Amino acid sequence: MRVARVGFTRVACAAGAMLGLATLGGAPAAAAPARQAPATQAAAIQQQGPAVKHAFKVTIYPAYTTAGLQTTFEVTVANTSSQGTTLRSVQVTPPAGFTVAHPSPTSPLRRKTSVKKRTFSLHQILLKPGHKMQFNVTATAPTACGKGTVLRWTSRAFQGTTPSGPQLALQVATSSVGVTVICPQLAPCGDGGPACSTSVNTSVSTYGVVSNAATGTLHGTLDVGRRLTCGSYRFRDPNWYDSVVTPPAGTTAPPAGTPPIVDQVSYTIVNASPQGLGFCLGALYDFVTASGAMAPGGRLPNGNAGFIGLLPMCTPATPPCISSISQQSDPNAPTGFDAVMSIQIPEQGDPWGSG
């Protein structure tokens, strides 16, 4: 457990982590904002709109997941009520077809959480007006991936210590509870046609991978497991990506003498500038980072131990590295431009990435 000086608590658990904060704001993929004094924090929330006597808002991140796979969603609940209304329990439910994981027997929050069918309940909390808290809900997406339809979580908040009695009204206009289930991308390699490739598209990005694998199947997924983090780097894209070549059925590794597999990644981030842009790689192998040091050890999104760091440019470094970062015109972007990266990633193990 880590307790900071101004109302900030973090408790890790198998079903997620709970995080009590005293301010609203801050994009899910960005670094946490500097903490303020309690009075300033409460005022900041009230400035976002007129207080309602009994009200709350919810933000659920990420807004995408991959069909049939598990994602740890970060749920932020804010008490936007007028003074005198305390939020003491909350429930969140993913869309139909999702399944929610139960907390582990050793979870510090096990006694405050429960899962019934697909509803995650958190009780015996204390969230005063002008304050917010964050907790994680791990859920597996349905195998049906639809056609880009935005599904929606439901949520309820209560003044009682258990999810019953007087409720707070959800501020729909300021809440973000949508999730889109995308299809996993599959491409056979070495079938005599063009090089195997996948492309994952979101409203803010396109992540394309071309592999030189001579056999196997290239898999591309989005927002699987826990979000990828890279020290203090501020991500421009809130999503993270995984691409891996699995060997043919009945084999566990490429035949002896097979050339090393290298993925060529073409990555576009909408409405982003090349200035300060980087690419965070998580892999099972160690590599040289943009600072010149070897990547530090870390936990990959799927829970495996690995190495995580920002990639260097390919001159003078060798893969994994960034070949180029450029800017392209986009009349639909508020800034009029998107950022485009070209990246080379050796396929050893299971590489993850995000910018």
Any overview of this molecule?
This protein has 355 residues and is an all-beta fold. Helix content is 3%, strand content 40%. It contains one helix and 27 strands. A hairpin with an 8-residue loop joins strand 13 and strand 14 (167-170). The protein is globular. The two termini are 29 Å apart. Mean pLDDT is 85; it is low at 1-49.
Report strand %.
35-45%
Element-level helix/strand string: EEEHEEEEEEEEEEEEEEEEEEEEEEEE
Whole-number radius of gyration?
A: 22 Å
Task: Please count the helical segments.
Answer: 1
Distance between the termini: 29 Å
Low-confidence stretches: 1-49
What characteristic shape results from the CA principal axes? globular
Helix content: under 10%
Using brief descriptors, characterize the structure shown.
355 residues, mainly beta, twelve-stranded mixed beta sheet, 1 helix, 27 strands
